[in-house]
C-alpha cells in the first residue's frame, strides 16, 4: 500500500508546482489527498476485477510466423483486459470528456457511480475554488499559441459544469466507494475460496 500512496504524492507534487498553482499549503495538501484517494479507489477496483476473474484462462491469438499463420492457444489473465474495458465507461461518465448534460437520461445514473467524477470535481474545486484569487493572465505574443485567458476562477468551474456539492462531499463519496470496493473484493475472494472446497 505504500507505493499506492507514495507515487500519487510524488506525481501530484510535480504537477501542482509545474502548473504554477498557488503556494497555499491547505490547497496543496487537499490536492495531494484527492490524488491519493483516487489512486486507492482505482487500486480497489483493480482488486475487485482481479478477485472476480480466474487467474488464467485460455485465449486465442493469431500468431504470425513465417511462412505460415496459425492460431495458437496461450494463457492470459482476463483482468488485464477487463481493467481498461471498465476504465473507459468510468472515465466517459465522469464529465471530463463528455458534459454530463449531453449524456442520455437513461445513462446518467452511471455518472453517479463513476469515482473519477468525484475525483475530477474535487480536483477542480481545490484548484479553482476555495476563494481562489484572480488568475494571472499571461498571454503569449506568438499568435500561433495564443489562447483566451479567464481571470475569474469561478468561470472555469461554471464552464466545466462542476456540481454544487461541497468538496467534502466529493471526499466522502470517494471514501465510501473505496470501502465498498474493498469489501466487495473481500467477499468475492471469500466466495471463490468457498467454491473450491
Task: Walk me through the structure.
Helix content is 58%, strand content 9%. Residues 57-76 have low confidence and may be disordered. It has 197 residues and is mainly alpha-helical. A two-stranded antiparallel ribbon has the order 1-2. It starts with a helix and ends with a helix. Strand 1 (57-65) and strand 2 (68-76) form a beta hairpin. Helix 1 (2-18) crosses helix 2, helix 2 (25-52) packs parallel to helix 7 (167-196) and helix 5 (115-128) packs antiparallel against helix 7 (167-196).
Summed up, the helix count is 7
Query: Could you report the average pLDDT, rounded to the nearest whole number?
Result: 78
Tell how many strands the DSSP assignment holds: 2
The chain-level structural class is: mainly alpha
Order of strands in the sheet with the most strands? Answer: 1-2
Any idea what the shape is?
globular
Poorly predicted regions are 57-76
Percent of residues in helices comes to 55-70%
Whole-number count of domains: 1
Oligomer: single chain
SSE string, helix = H, strand = E?
HHEEHHHHH
Q: What gyration radius follows from the Cα positions, in whole Å?
A: 22 Å
Beta-strand residue percentage: 5-15%
The biggest sheet amounts to: 2 strands, antiparallel
Query: What is the CA–CA distance across the termini?
Result: 30 Å
InterPro entries: ABC2_TM (IPR013525), ABCG_transporters (IPR050352)
Keywords: Membrane, Transmembrane, Transmembrane helix, Transport
Pfam family, one: ABC2_membrane
Membrane topology: Multi-pass membrane protein
Amino acid at each position: 500500500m505504500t507505493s499506492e500512496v507514495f507515487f500519487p504524492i510524488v506525481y501530484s507534487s510535480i504537477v501542482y508546482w509545474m502548473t504554477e498553482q498557488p503556494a497555499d499549503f491547505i490547497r496543496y495538501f487537499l490536492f495531494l489527498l484527492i490524488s491519493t484517494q483516487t489512486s486507492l479507489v482505482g487500486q480497489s477496483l483493480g482488486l475487485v476485477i482481479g478477485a472476480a476473474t480466474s487467474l488464467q484462462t485460455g485465449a486465442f491469438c493469431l500468431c504470425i510466423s513465417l511462412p505460415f499463420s496459425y492460431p495458437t492457444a496461450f494463457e492470459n489473465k482476463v483482468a488485464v483486459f477487463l481493467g481498461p474495458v471498465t476504465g473507459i465507461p468510468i472515465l466517459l461518465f465522469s464529465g471530463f470528456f463528455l458534459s454530463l448534460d449531453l449524456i442520455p437520461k437513461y445513462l446518467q445514473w452511471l455518472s453517479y457511480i463513476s469515482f473519477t467524477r468525484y475525483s475530477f470535481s474535487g480536483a477542480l474545486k481545490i484548484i479553482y475554488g476555495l476563494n481562489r484569487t484572480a488568475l494571472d493572465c499571461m498571454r503569449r505574443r506568438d499568435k500561433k499559441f495564443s489562447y483566451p485567458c479567464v481571470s475569474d476562477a469561478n468561470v472555469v468551474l461554471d464552464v466545466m459544469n462542476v456540481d454544487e456539492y461541497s468538496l467534502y462531499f466529493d471526499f466522502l463519496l470517494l471514501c465510501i466507494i473505496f470501502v465498498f470496493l474493498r469489501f466487495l473484493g473481500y467477499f468475492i475472494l471469500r466466495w471463490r475460496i468457498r467454491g473450491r472446497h
